Amino acid sequence: MSLAMYCRLKRTKFVLDVELSLTPGRVLAITGENGSGKSSTIDMIAGLLACTTGKILLNGEVLDDSTTNQFVQPEMRGVSTVFQGGGLFSHMTVEKNILFGRGAEFKNTPKFNAAVEQFNLVGLLTRKPSTLSGGQRQRVALARAFLSPSEILLLDEPTSSLDAVSRDEVRRAMKGFFETYKGVVILVSHDAVEVAQIATDVTNIKVTRGETTTAKLTA
Length: 219
Fold this sequence. Notes:
Elements: E1 3-11, E2 14-22, E3 27-31, H1 38-46, E4 53-58, E5 61-65, E6 70-71, E7 79-82, H2 94-99, H3 110-118, H4 134-147, E8 152-156, H5 164-178, E9 184-188, H6 192-198, E10 201-204, E11 206-208, E12 213-218
Parallel strand pairs: 2-12, 3-9, 3-10, 7-8, 8-9
Antiparallel strand pairs: 1-2, 1-4, 4-5, 5-6, 11-12
């Protein structure tokens, strides 16, 4: 489940160069100042942005290649993403949110039950997101991402909007899952404590400013 990425993203007066080579079992934390390209990096891996030039490979298979115009759509990439705020569907119950998408095949299975227990959601399955705390909503989002069959897990500031107690709960849940997850994890975070507790590797985006701002990420 290796991930290799050699991509350049060009915008008006901004260039982001990314070189990543990751193997299963690693949790890579990406740090850097606001606007340096952290979220854009995971958006390219998720398929929400295309590389301007370069390629992304998962297990040697092309996800994005500018030279051949190959581009695998997000839903076909085997990638799970957790954004800030969780991105839950307000009209769905907790259970339906967890099972949404690729996780639907695990309804009424031991794997679903294990995800619910791991993220302490047993008593919340019939509730709607509007009735949950911020920490509870983020645990639901993480359970959904972890349940879905994926080879890459992308986390974009997953605890930034939480209070201290909820943040600790979510960190413990993530750390416990990463100990058994067989894929690649990329965590975007500004939180030094979170990075120290969870990441196995850390890289910082280096930014050079001139007429054009250039950001470089290597890991």
